[in-house]
Amino acid sequence: MNKKTLTMVVNGKTVEKMVEPGDTLLDVLREELGLKGVKKGCGKGECGACTIIMNGKAVNSCIVPAMQAVGAEIQTIEGLSNGNGLHPLQQTFIDCGAIQCGFCTPGMIMSSKALLDKNLKPTKEEIKQALAGNVCRCTGFVKIEEAVEKAAEILKNGK
Amino acid sequence: MINDYVLPKTVEDALAALKQGNAKLIAGGTDLMLDLKSCKAAADTLVDINGIKELKGIKESDGNIIIGAGTTHQEVAESFLIQEKAVVLAKASGSVGSLQIRNTATVVGNIVNAQPAADAAVALVALGAEAEIVDKEGTIYQPVENLYAGLAKCKVDSSCQIITAVRFPALFSNQGSAYVRLAKRGALALPMLCVAVAASLKDGKIEWVRIVMAPVSTKPLRALEAEELLKDKEPSEEVILEASKKAAAMADPRDSKLRGSRAYRSSVLVNLVKRGITEAIKNARQ
């Protein structure tokens, strides 16, 4: 098998890895780069736990071939905090009780970030649409919606 | 087992790459990646078309809307051009999977995968779309509705042919379209039934109408008898209901644990078709 060179920008840093041609992006992010915040849930693009932002768009990394990320800009949950404090989405998820077991949280937050990067005044409907591909079995979703609304408010005022 | 992954820059390079052994085209990969994992599909080499610039995007040319094979459902759903001149497709693409899926899966992928209920393909049949198919012999155009070779089997062979685009006439101001979908929940749910309709009005009468239902057959099913019945008629509630009953009578839905019983789906289909025709006509009048 010929390993392929994958160069991409992950959380602001250029990385180069030799990957198997059949690897998924999730495999590479978790196993090669150690970004274990990217969760593997269903492995079928249905639960959203593996959601990352690729070139500004939320995608399920479990069904994206790694080689599709050649030259791409990737953001994962690990890139959100700047080291001096949590990202407003991370903080509001905690404050609103939008986290219970936490397994869906990185995906939820990345889907929310993809939304807020484009729209700091989302309606409830827009939030629901953006998060429709992320399943949470604990919280019942309402607190997650509230957390996204609150984070939007903070980010808007901070700009 | 995937031994190689190729990212060609041109259609010619993609065709050349397909010739090498057991190769398959990949665009969004949202179906193919799962099929490879479950061994429903096999390939040694994946030929990824996402690096081919000419296959990206939506354009209007000489009254036709052309959608490149690398265009995602979300790009189509958000396109003002599609929303204005082919709203049935904007709605259909907008109801595929979740946002994450729509950000990767392509409209043309819905044709190649040949699932009878693939939302965008159902809408494309209503729009009278043609696929642009390229292979080593050259380029041909085939109506999308003629590309089904059986359940989940496309006549286009993605190991040696490429659908490079789909094209269909942009709807004029006297024409309209609609998409009606029944699913267990509002998002990330397979359709139990979907109906796509495009209609043209002339002097207050229906000039032509295309009614497509799915999944009620091995392919998106045109309700030809109902279309014929409506032709040259004023769109009254009575005639629309009569046509809807005729359409539903042509459908052959299966009992399905995922999509509901045959009896339920047959009965509710009449109303969905009626709603689709009514909305398409309303859209044509706007």
Q: Main attributes?
A:
heterodimer, A: 159 residues, alpha+beta, Ubiquitin-like (UB roll), DNA polymerase, domain 1, 2 domains, 5-stranded mixed β-sheet, 5 helices, 5 strands, 35% helix, B: 286 residues, Uridine Diphospho-n-acetylenolpyruvylglucosamine Reductase, domain 2, Uridine Diphospho-n-acetylenolpyruvylglucosamine Reductase, domain 3, Enolase-like, domain 1, 3 domains, 5-stranded antiparallel β-sheet, 4-stranded antiparallel β-sheet, globular
Describe this structure in words.
The complex is a heterodimer of chains A (159) and B (286). Chain A is of the alpha+beta class and 159 residues long. Chain A has 2 domains: 4-79, Roll (Ubiquitin-like (UB roll)), CATH 3.10.20; 88-158, DNA polymerase, domain 1 (Orthogonal Bundle), CATH 1.10.150.120. In chain A, 35% of the residues lie in helices and 16% in strands. Chain A contains 5 helices and 5 strands. Chain A has helices at 25-32, 88-95, 105-118, 124-131, 142-158, and strands spanning 4-10, 13-19, 51-54, 57-60, 73-75. Chain A has a 5-stranded mixed beta sheet with strand order 2-1-5-3-4, sandwiched between helices. In chain A, strand 1 (4-10) and strand 2 (13-19) form a beta hairpin. Chain A is globular and about 50 Å long. Chain A starts with a strand and ends with a helix. The model of chain A has no long low-confidence stretch (mean pLDDT 96). Chain B is of the alpha+beta class. Chain B has 3 domains: 4-49, Uridine Diphospho-n-acetylenolpyruvylglucosamine Reductase, domain 2; 57-169, 2-Layer Sandwich (Uridine Diphospho-n-acetylenolpyruvylglucosamine Reductase, domain 3), CATH 3.30.465.10; 175-285, CO dehydrogenase flavoprotein, C-terminal domain (Enolase-like, domain 1, 2-Layer Sandwich), CATH 3.30.390. Helices cover 34% and strands 27% of the residues of chain B. Chain B is built from 11 helices and 14 strands. In chain B, the strands form 4 sheets. Chain B has a 5-stranded antiparallel beta sheet, sandwiched between helices. A 4-stranded antiparallel beta sheet of chain B has the order 11-12-13-14, with helices on both faces. A 3-stranded parallel beta sheet of chain B has the order 1-3-2, covered by helices on one side. In chain B, helix 5 runs antiparallel to helix 8 and helix 9 packs antiparallel against helix 10. Chain B is globular. The termini of chain B are far apart. The interface between A and B is medium-sized, with 30 and 28 residues.
